[in-house]
Structures are given as structure tokens and as C-alpha cells.
Amino acid sequence: MKNCIFILLCLFFSVLAKAQHLPLFTQYGENIGIINPAAVSSNFLLYDDNFSFGASYRSQWVGLKNGPRTQTLHGSYLNPNTNSIGLMAGGYLINDQTGPTGFTGAYARIGGLISEDPYDSGLAFGLNIGAVQYRVKVSEIRLRDFNDILTDTDQTQLFPDVGLGVYYYKSLTRGFLDNSYFYAGLSVPQVIGLDLEFKDDTGEFSTKRIQHFYGLLGLLKRFSDDSFLEMSSWLKYAPNAPFNADFNIRYRMAVNFWIGTGLSTSGNFHTEAGFVFGENIGFERNLKLGYGFDYSFSDFGPFVGSTHEINLSFSFGE
pLDDT digit string (tens) for 247-260? Predict the structure, then answer.
């Protein structure tokens, strides 16, 4: 009975609904280049590290079989040694699976940072170009009472993908905001909207991919003991889906340990914690390990369990 309920949920939310089709992140700052290809990493703003690499694993709907699983690998580079336009480059791999449906994408990232002093402020424009393979494991969603819906043959399709973004940041020097950065960005991570059809001689399975519109707002305040406070928001909109906003706050102590918490307008609560390994262990580079936990208090729909996320990142400056 639980398997039948889960499969119907997948069919309803993943196939018919014109809603959120892109993966979510708890510690979205660690995957900021996926959200906005023009974004400047906080590793550069905080540590002057212009090379960043990372990996993440996210498990949603814990407690339900075949809940969403997302894995990412990403890297980015920013050339700060310029007084006009600095090169931004990188790329990422992403894999997402929700029960019988999923996708795998590979992207290259290119952009430019317009700035006279990249350590003070900048306006960046970025582009992600890649390809995404969508797949449906038909054999996993065939039910005894729904034999006529689909064939037994698993289906895959490959499509191009493009993401666009703009991002601005500025150092602040007055009062409490001294030694702080303000940042803001807008992005459309998948510009190409598609109607995807998987079909053969005996059945047809359709889903619609639509554009998503993202906004980022944040303030990074660095204190004299090298601790910092970050307040941020991730705004999300997709046609025919409710507007959603995440509001988060994170504090990193001088001992290189951070904690954070946040809420979203959809009723999600999250908390996070992590370590920054560097000079405190005789290591010249910044190695970060973070864990995030989400729980939904929404009264819409069935119980979908909690969410766990792990991020590992490495950054350094030239």
C-alpha cells in the first residue's frame, strides 16, 4: 500500500504538476554557482580564495522509500587580477533521482566580473551551458491496476540546457556594517523550457520542464576576531507554483565552527552546522565540512519526512 501511494505521488508531483522541477539545497551557499552562474563564492569574499571546489549529497523524504536523492560536484575560478573585466569559469555535475524519474546534467560555466577592484565590489554576468539526460524507469511505476499506462521499457532523452545570471556585491564601511559585504543576484538556471515525451508503440509518458526564476540577497559581516555573521535569502518562483522564500542566518565562530538556522514560506525549518579546517590544523587551505537538516511543518499534502544534506568543499587563493 505504501509503495502504491508513493508511486501515485511521484506521478502527480513529478509528471503532471507544473511546479518545482529543480533540486533544492539547505546550504545553498555551497552550491551557489548552480543556482546563479554569475555568483561570486563567499570563499572569495571571506578568505580571498578565488578557486573553489566542492561536493554535496542530499537525501529528502527520509522515511519514505525512493525519496529524492541529489548529488553534485562543482568547481569555480575567478581572476581577481584585473581592473576591468575578470574571467569567471567553472562547471558542475548534478544527478537527481526521485523514485522512477530523474536526470543527470553536465555544465560548463563562463562569465565576466566588471570591477575596478574585485576585493571591493563587482557586477558579474554568467552563463551555464550543458546537457541533461532525463530518464523514466517505467518498470518501477507499472502497477497491476495501471498496466495500460506505460510500456515496460525504461526511457531516456537528452536535451541541451542553458542558465543565465547576474550578480552584484559591494563592501560596506559604515558603523556596524564596517567590514561587511552586501550581495544580490537574479538568475534563470534553465532557460529552455521543454515538453518532454517518452513514448513507444504501446504507451506515452509526458512531463513539462518550465523556467525557474531565482533571487539571492545576503549580508556578510566579518568581525575583528575573524568570526562572521551571514544573513541571506533565496527567492524562488516558477509559473503555476507558489512563490517561495528561504530566510537564513549563519554564524561562524573564531574557532572555525559555524551554526545556522532558517525558515521558508513553504513551512520548512532548517538547521546546519560545520567546521572550517585550515590554519587551526596546520593546513594552508580552507577545507569545509557542513551538515544540514530540514523538517517540514507544512499542512499541505502527505507527510514526506525530513531531509539531510552533507557538503564538502575546498578553496584556495593564487
Answer: 999 999 987 899 99
